[in-house]
Amino acid sequence: MESIEREFIIKINNQSVALPENNDEPRVHASLGPTSPAVFTLVEGYLKSSGWILGRALVEDRSLLPKKVFWFDEQHSDLGLIQKTRAVPDGESYVLEFAGAPLIAPDGLLLADLMRVL
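The structure corresponding to this sequence follows.
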């Protein structure tokens, strides 16, 4: 599924994905945080929240190590350089696939785990 009509939050280990704090960079490594949770919509494969897009970069290293998940500034980012995200229904919720890989958050930083491809 490439779109979800209602708004939602993303939680990992009972912590919510946080919006980047006061950052002027066009791309920021996403993290979990104690601040207000990011409220998302999924529109045509892009996770959007408050002018940012959450996703993996199209160009990544070729290892099988977990890949960073970034916040991309929606106004200054080329959508062609951001991999799309899919939502797979799972009961009353969804499992998000970042190019087929689930989210993990060791040390609170968001990564896509290529070794656990869904």
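The mean pLDDT is 93.
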